[in-house]
Amino acid sequence: MIGIGMEGSANKVAIGIMLHPDDGSEAKVLANVRHTYNAPPGEGFLPKDTARHHRAWVVKLVKKALKEAKVTVDDVDCICFTQGPGMGAPLQSVAIAARMLSLLWGKKLVGVNHCVGHIEMGRLITGATNPVVLYVSGGNTQVIAYSSQRYRIFGETLDIAVGNCLDRFARTLHIPNDPAPGYNIEQLAKKSKRLVDLPYVVKGMDCSFSGILAAIDGLAASWGLGGPEQAKADAESDSNAEHTSEDPDGKPTRADLCFSLQETVYAMLVEITERAMAHVGSKEVLIVGGVGCNERLQEMMAIMARDRGGSIFATDERFCIDNGIMIAQAGMLSYKTGLTTPLKETACTQRFRTDSVWVKWRDD
């Protein structure tokens, strides 16, 4: 069985092709292509511009994926697409393309929850059996565990997602968006070990990031660390982005703020993940979503898991960052149980809850 996955919930449009062998052996990735829309430094990606980008690239990527996978249209069994959550206009752009291909090729459609796609791809790649899942991305922050054919949300953000917090601070510092603002913050943070006090907001199993963002934006402004001028100065001299340990009372640097933001928000995520692990009695934790690529987050989570006698499962940017194969994987699992999406029910929804999906393909 071969399925095409089409993803376009944010600034990446991606096409993936998966093969599920008839003999029940492990699924194989045949193609995984994507293209990213990057806004200029200091700006975020707007829905209308992102949707325009997706419309321009989606057909090209479908052709490229079919060529890379060495399959034809006749080989394809179903077309899976992201139905939500995400940004409305980009979601609709890719959904329209999926409907068009379904009608042209005579293939069944399968609407996929973006979050469930991340989870199922993470489980496939890492081999995690029944882990507590930390799902962290630009639009979502959730701690999840499976029970009774649902992915149950134990904790989540009360306001903005952790990835959105990082992205918006990157705009404050005019850090480039290419290849990703969070990645560039991570590289800058590696140049510092100086921790600046920031709010730490954990409420039970939930987190809040808007207050942290407001606080660190205020610090950047008061110390004159934001704006394009400072970003240009840092680009001209690496020494401007490094902290001098001999001057502990001196003005913090941009690297100090990036380091402090990462340490604070990731500590919050590790805390609520550990609480969920204790609650369900799990010794496995799986990190998925674009922010899950962050090496420091993986390191902090690994320390916590090791202290509990457990283990951590994580993937690289091929599978953490939004991709088409995760949509193909989750969609094909659904398709094999007989669940498809009629054309009249393919409307996208920006608020598609992870725990609203009937996980029919799991009975453990």
UniProtKB/TrEMBL annotation:
It is found in: Cytoplasm; Nucleus. Substrate binds at residues 135-139, 167, 182, 186, 294. Residues 231-254 have a biased composition (Basic and acidic residues). Its EC number is 2.3.1.234. Its cofactor is a divalent metal cation. Keywords: Activator, Acyltransferase, Cytoplasm, Metal-binding, Nucleus, Transferase, tRNA processing. Residues 29-328 form the Gcp-like domain. Residues 230-254 are annotated as: Disordered. InterPro entries: ATPase_NBD (IPR043129), Gcp-like_dom (IPR000905), KAE1/TsaD (IPR017861), Kae1_archaea_euk (IPR034680). It is an enzyme of class 2 (transferase). A divalent metal cation binds at residues 114, 118, 135, 322. GO terms for molecular function: metal ion binding; tRNA N(6)-L-threonylcarbamoyladenine synthase activity. It catalyses: L-threonylcarbamoyladenylate + adenosine(37) in tRNA = N(6)-L-threonylcarbamoyladenosine(37) in tRNA + AMP + H(+). It comes from the Eukaryota. Binds 1 divalent metal cation per subunit. One of its GO terms (biological process) is tRNA threonylcarbamoyladenosine modification. Belongs to the KAE1 / TsaD family. NCBIfam families: gcp_kae1. HAMAP family: Kae1 (MF_01446). This is N(6)-L-threonylcarbamoyladenine synthase.
